[in-house]
Amino acid sequence: MAEFLIRKLEHFTSLSTEDKHALDQASRQRTRRIRSRDDIVHEGDLPQGVNLILDGWACRYKTLEDGRRQIIAYLLPGDLCDHHVSILREMDHSIGTVTAVTLAEIPTETMRQLTAGQARLSQALCWESLVAAAIQREWTVNIGQRTAFERLGHLLCELYVRLRAVGLTQGNTCELPLTQAEIADTIGLSVVHVNRTLQELRSVGLISLRGRELTIHRLDALQRAVQFNPNYLHLGREGRHLDSNEA
Amino acid sequence: MAEFLIRKLEHFTSLSTEDKHALDQASRQRTRRIRSRDDIVHEGDLPQGVNLILDGWACRYKTLEDGRRQIIAYLLPGDLCDHHVSILREMDHSIGTVTAVTLAEIPTETMRQLTAGQARLSQALCWESLVAAAIQREWTVNIGQRTAFERLGHLLCELYVRLRAVGLTQGNTCELPLTQAEIADTIGLSVVHVNRTLQELRSVGLISLRGRELTIHRLDALQRAVQFNPNYLHLGREGRHLDSNEA
DNA sequence: GATTGTAATTAACTTTTGTTATGACAATTT
DNA sequence: AAATTGTCATAACAAAAGTTAATTACAATC
Hints:
The structure is a homodimer of 247-residue chains. With 247 residues, chain A is an alpha+beta fold. Chain A has 2 domains: 3-130, Jelly Rolls, CATH 2.60.120; 147-233, Arc Repressor Mutant, subunit A. Helices cover 41% and strands 21% of the residues of chain A. In chain A, the strands form 3 sheets. In chain A, strands 1-8-3-6 form a 4-stranded antiparallel beta sheet. Chain A has a 4-stranded antiparallel beta sheet with strand order 2-7-4-5. The first copy, chain A, has a 4-stranded antiparallel beta sheet with strand order 9-10-12-11. In chain A, α5 packs across α7 and α5 (148-165) crosses α8. Chains A and B meet through β5, α4 and α6 of A and β5, α4 and α6 of B.
C-alpha cells in the first residue's frame, strides 16, 4: 500500500525491511476513497491525524471571499499531508481532490509509534516534510519572479520529476489530470493566458499535452528554458531513472 | 536574550519557568553579530544547527541565474530558522540580513535536549515551524491571486501583526526597514509599481510610511481592504494587544 | 446517434504592470 | 565642502496579462 511513499523516502535513505513493513501496516489501518473534485479537509476544520495519498492527485488550496482561488500545493501518490498539523487549532486552508483519490488515514498515535522507534524512519519522514516546505518556497519564487512561459514550464518539470521519483512516469510521459483552469489557479495566471502559454510550449517543441497525457520531449532543454533546478526537491543525484517503462 | 521567542511562543501555550530558562540559556551559548545587507547562510552551504534571530531583520531569498531575486520569507526577532534543516544535504536558498542582526547559534545537540525533555516546549517549537509553513502558503496566495494594492497591504498587515506579537510595535506604528526594491522582490512587482502602489495606500489614508517608520492608521480598515485574515498566523485570539506603548 | 455539459481555443480589446529615463533629496564617503 | 551613491518619486511609453465573448472540440450520458 505504501509503495509510493517508500519509493520516495528511499531517495533520501535506505529503509530496513521492518521500517517498510511498519509503513505498510500503518497505511492499511484505515483507507478511504474520495471521488474526483471533492473536499478531503475544509478550512476551519479541526486538524486530524495524518493522511497519506495512496493513489490519485489532490491539492491544497485557499479561496478568497470573492471566489478567487489559489492552489498552494499538489499532493501526489506517496505524499503525506499534515504531519504535525494536529498541534494547530484549525486548518487555515482546504484540501481537495483533483482526481479520485485513495488515502490512508494514519492515526496520530500510529504516527508517534512509527517515529518513536526507528531513528532512520523518523529522519526520513522529517526529510519528507522539509522537502514539502522547500517546494512551497520554490512556488513563491516561481509565481513571484518568472514569466508566464517559465512558470508553466517550471510547474510541468516539477510535477514530472516528482512523479518520476515515485515511478509514475513512462519514459518522458506522465499523466497530467489538471484542467487549464486549475493550472491557472496554480501559477497565478488567467485561463486564457495559460492556454496561450501552453500553445507556446507546444509550438517550440518542448512538450505535447493531449487529453490528460503530458510528454516532455527533451527534459534537459525544458529545464534550461525555464531555469528549473531540481535541487530543491532534495532527491539526491538526478539522472537516476526510476521510470517503469524506459527504452 | 530569548525574550522575543518566548513572547511569541506564549501566544501558543504558557511555558514554565524552566522552559523559559532553558530557552534563554540556549540562546546565550553563542551569539553572533552580522552587519546590514550581508549573508548569514548561502545557497549550497551545508546546513548547520539552528539560528535564532535575537535582534534585527533578515530574509530568506533565492536568486535566479539572470539576477532576478525573490525574497521568500522575513525573519524577525524571535524567529527560528531551520529547525531540522541539518537533515538536508545542502541549503536550497540563502539567508541574508536586512538590518544589522544579532543571532544566537543553537547547536543541534542543545536543540535536541530542549525538545527531548519538556513536551510543552517541544510542542511550542513545532507550532513555531508550522506557523512558518503557513506563512509561506499565504505568500503563495498573496502573490498568485491578489492585486498589487492588496499584495502590498497584505504584506504590511502581516509584518505589523507579527511584530506586534513580539511586542515590537508602538501603538499603530512599527519599524519597516525595507527599501522599495526589497518590497518589490518580496511581492513580485517592479520597484516603480511598488512606488505607485505605496502612493495609493497613502492617498486613501490607510498608511503613512516615512523613513523607516510605518503607521497603519486603521488596521481593521486595511485588513478589510486587502482581505487580510490573520488566522494563518495561529496567534490565538486577535485583538489581544501586546504593544509596548499603547494609549 | 443525439444531446448535453465541460474544457479548450481563439479573437478583440482593456487594464495592469514593466521599462527606461530623469530629477530631487539625503546619507556617506572622499 | 564636494562628490558619490542609494533611495524615492514621476513621466512616457512598451509589453504582458486580464477580460469578455464567441466558437470549437471533446467526452459523458441518455
